Amino acid sequence: MIKIKKDISFVQLIPKVLQAVLNISLVFLAMILSILLVQELIIFGQILFKEQNSDYKLFLANILLFFLYFEFITMIVKYFKEDYHFPLRYFLYIGITAMIRLIIVDHDHPVNTLFYSIVILILIIGYFIMNITPRERPDSRWFFKK
């Protein structure tokens, strides 16, 4: 085995290198999402201050797209604050927001709208179940005690 330092072997170094690559990639992703968030604000302002404010669907779709960008950036911030862990609730928030956006943008087919609504209900039920379960998991060492 190749030794890098006295205490750290090559095999122990691999997860640290991969974690660093992941962290750098997430920082770049957060910067790209921030740029897209600002672009969405500019588009939102253009739609808001146009003379013809008749396309309310486009207005609502852009608001929800803004919140999707915002939630992804918030999730990346939480990832770094919570010691490299993505909280599950943020994925549920993003899923619910994305489904609401789909309903607003693509509501021409009633069956699809019903399916999107059922998906939202399932996500909300999952969020409810997640909130009623304790955050701290019970110690599983009692199972192995003799």
From TrEMBL:
Its main location: membrane. It is found in: Cell inner membrane. The keyword Transmembrane applies. It is a multi-pass membrane protein. The chain crosses the membrane at residues 21-47, 59-78, 90-107, 113-132. InterPro entries: P_starv_induced_PsiE, P_starv_induced_PsiE-like. Signal peptide: none annotated. Pfam families: PsiE. The keyword Zinc does not apply. Keywords: Cell membrane, Membrane, Transmembrane, Transmembrane helix. It comes from the Bacteria. Belongs to the PsiE family. This is Protein PsiE. It comes from Siminovitchia fordii. The lineage of its organism: Bacteria, Bacillati, Bacillota, Bacilli, Bacillales.
